[in-house]
Amino acid sequence: MAKRDFGCIRKLPSGNFQAFYQGPDGIKHKAHTTFKKKANAEFWLFKERNLIEIENWTPPNTRSYKEKNKKAITFSDYTKNWIENRMTPFGKKLADNTLATYKILLDVHILPYFKNKILNQISVLDIKTWLENSDNSAPRSKQLAYSLMFSIMRSASFPDDEGNILIDKNPCTVKSTYKVKNKLKNCNLRIASKEELEKIENATPEKYRLMISLAAWCAMRSGEILELRRKDIDFKKNIIKIRRQVQHITAKGYVVSAPKSEAGIRNVSIPPHLIEKFKSHLEKFVEKNQEALIIKSISGINGYLSKSGYRTFYKKACKVAGCPHLRFHDLRHTGATYYAQIGATTKELMERIGHSTPEMTLRYQHVAKGRQQELAKRMSELFSS
């Protein structure tokens, strides 16, 4: 039996190794199992000694009892607690829209299969079977559901606030086919031409045309546009003060909150060619009080234009313009790319579009560089024709 600074390891007749030590309570404590490798026994002693040093030690047999009682935790019970306590990487609570998306993914894709399963009994085979039998008609939803399942099970494999580890390892180890692809590497930005933007705007009902301009030329998000009010427009400085956004959350209705990130709180300069159009819109369609919405629906709840409302006229306008596959958010991509194309630095672009990290901003600059090359090629073709 080897002498050690802490604990002892002895080799049994079976060839396995047994580890034990004297605890702070003066009692000898053994590992609940023997080890085939001596290194594993040493690692067990190392962890026990660490628990003593950080004053988080309890007798191993007590912890073993807790381990056996993990089976009382169902996936549904764990997930409910996970959702309630989940935080962003910046230590903030999840946004209402994110919570609503998680609930839909859980209710529709995950809980019907895993609701009553014991958390620490969910296996790799269970995950594979679930994916193979799930609906293939919505691959994006399937990817998002797997990503959420991965995050939940990953959390369960790490120590909680009391130091308990609920599962030995994350069973979500299937092929990367089901993983949500990196947005930066796989996003093919759709950029509208100036002519397409004009056609879309002309095909849009007059009282909503400014919405097209704000998305394209000011690179604003739809939720920022729909919560924009008269008090947020400063024609002396020709800026738009973006301080809020609105989202429709299932079971909650319209929820007003701060923009997507702290960087989303910003002032956006209004391009000179939009000034008169902006003033005309305010004169024709916006009430005089400072709280009046810039884009308003007479029939909408609290005056807000619904997502289905603007999507209806937008799709029709895009069809007329000959670009039916252009999404509304692509107008924001368009504005950001044009801003990069005229020479905006990474910092300037981040400030204008409200991004807190440069990754997507660099993507816009990369696309802008490609468009400049395309325009140069077209000029040569024009010259040679």
Can you walk through the features of this model?
The chain has helices at 38-53, 60-68, 75-85, 96-114, 124-133, 139-156, 183-186, 194-202, 209-217, 222-226, 275-285, 307-321, 329-341, 346-353, 359-384; strands spanning 8-11, 17-22, 28-30, 233-234, 239-242, 245-249, 253-257, 266-269. The chain is elongated and about 90 Å long. The longest helix has 26 residues, at 359-384. A three-stranded antiparallel sheet has the order 1-2-3, covered by helices on one side. A three-stranded antiparallel sheet has the order 4-5-8. The chain has a two-stranded antiparallel ribbon with strand order 6-7. The termini are far apart. Strand 4 and strand 5 (239-242) form a beta hairpin. By secondary structure, it is mainly alpha-helical. The protein has three domains: 8-69, no CATH class; 73-181, Orthogonal Bundle (DNA polymerase, domain 1); 194-297 and 304-384, hpI Integrase, Chain A (Orthogonal Bundle). Helix 4 packs across helix 6, helix 9 (209-217) crosses helix 13 and helix 13 (329-341) crosses helix 15 (359-384). It is built from 15 helices and eight strands. 48% of the residues lie in helices and 9% in strands.
Structure described in brief:
The longest helix has 26 residues, at 359-384.
Set out the fold topology:
Layout: E1 8-11, E2 17-22, E3 28-30, H1 38-53, H2 60-68, H3 75-85, H4 96-114, H5 124-133, H6 139-156, H7 183-186, H8 194-202, H9 209-217, H10 222-226, E4 233-234, E5 239-242, E6 245-249, E7 253-257, E8 266-269, H11 275-285, H12 307-321, H13 329-341, H14 346-353, H15 359-384
Antiparallel strand pairs: 1-2, 2-3, 4-5, 5-8, 6-7
